[in-house]
Specification:
The structure is a homodimer.
Chain A lengths: L4 H15 L8 H8 L3 H13 L3 E4 L5 E4 L8 H9 L16 H18 L3 H11 L1
Antiparallel strand pairs in A: 1-2
Bound molecules: iron/sulfur cluster (2 copies).
The site of one iron/sulfur cluster has 7 residues of chain B, from helix 5.
The structure holds a DNA duplex.
Chain lengths: 133, 133
DNA sequence: CAATCAAAGACTTTATTTGCCCATGATAAC
DNA sequence: GTTATCATGGGCAAATAAAGTCTTTGATTG
């Protein structure tokens, strides 16, 4: 029960892209260096973000990644789901019907966390961070 | 990022012990059968609960497990922490100081979930379940 | 066409979880 | 006291998941 490193990398990447000059293309190498992770591994994570429609990529020389138009609305939860999937944190094999109280409690607990993360937009965090500089 | 099966087993066991006649000793075999898990594995989980002070065990013939005196106060969160540990769900290698906004958001999110789970006592859930019978 | 860069698939390594086996120790019944 | 029962503990094996590597392909720039 831990967030994966992949999620960590995705959050940092998104935040970095949100702070950098808009529409500027950033290569995977530069992103990987900052986070001390191998470019090939980070590449896979970035591809997930592309498929989730959060960033777009440009191949070829001077290519790289940048945020998509709707990026202001992207939340922490969006990023986490893009990497970790949408499955529930709690699952049981013997499914005794939908009115199981244990499941209800566990699912509700997860939703408490998700409700908060859904309201944390990277755009707002980026604003706060640039204000500090 | 998922709750382990061990946590699942622990929750079910605690709830079962809360529904059963008080002070009655239940052996690991009976607990394991209900949950379709091997007794040997469940045994290790139960030992964790014993060490966490939530249940007590009696060796020898007719031995088994039962809840401890303060069991009415035990919450879902207590059980989860007993099994999964107390470490934060989000951790980064490069620790850039305690005022990192990413960490703050992730830790706060986790606390939202924990706040809810802390208020879900197994005693109250047991009450509701016996009311249904 | 040559250099650069993302995408994708196959693969290896590492870590964690889950589960089993067996020896040990405690307790009750006989 | 001997035997049956039951928890505890260590070590080990299998299964699963996470993390990371390598290599090929294909797109774009210049
Ligand atoms: S009691 Fe609820 S959580 Fe447990 S196995 Fe049945 S449905 Fe799943
Ligand atoms: S920015 Fe925050 S979360 Fe990221 S590595 Fe630094 S301290 Fe950790």
């Amino acid at each position: 029960m831990k967030f994966s490193k992949a999620t960590n990398y995705a959050l940092h990447t998104m935040l970095f892209l949100a702070v950098v000059p808009p529409n500027k293309l950033i290569g995977v190498q530069q992103l990987a260096e900052r986070q001390e992770v191998s470019p090939t591994y980070l590449s896979k994570i970035l591809t997930k973000l592309v498929k989730a429609g959060m960033i777009e990529s440009t191949s070829g020389a001077n290519g790289g990644y940048r945020l998509k138009r709707n990026w202001e609305e992207i939340s922490f939860l969006d990023i986490i789901h893009a990497i970790e999937g949408n499955a529930s944190l709690f699952e049981c094999d013997l499914n005794h019907g939908q009115d199981c109280m244990i499941q209800k409690i566990m699912v509700t607990a997860e939703e408490k966390m998700e409700d908060y993360l859904r309201n944390q937009k990277i755009s707002e965090l980026a604003k706060k961070m640039t204000a500090v500089l």
